[in-house]
Amino acid sequence: MEKKITSHIQKGCIVAITYILFNTVITFAKLTNAQWTDFVAWFIIIVGTLLSVHLFGKQHQNNQHFGSLFSHGFKTAAVATCFIFIYILIKVYLFDKQCIFDFAVSMAKSQDAKVNEKIFLTNLQSKPENIRRFSLLYISMKIMSILFLGMIGSLVGAVATPKQNLQTK
Hints:
The protein is mainly α. It is built from six helices and no strands. The chain is elongated.
């Protein structure tokens, strides 16, 4: 009986679904501004990718090189990022437009602690191009951070996965 190899697409879908479910629960619980939620989301991406690489190595009887393990993990992270990107677009443009305002206020406060939140939001809402600029910034920062975390997870997974002594040709 031949062992079935799980593809990076299936693993990426599992990582993305886990992230999306967590993010949806956090959004409905109105905990989006809590700092710990970011760490849990990062943990989901890194550990999901790391476990994907480890499972890939185990399914191949630990007979894979570092490069193939890393590439499998990064492909898993890329698939997860594609699904999460679609989720973020739907969330930002259809359901949770307030997240852009929260992001803009947090960015402004990180630049200057004396920002008056009400005046800032009034100025932001008066110009639609500002909302569009902040939404593009929000989406691009989320996607790049997810890819970066997936790269870290695949790197750690490729290093941590046991390998047999492989002969180079």
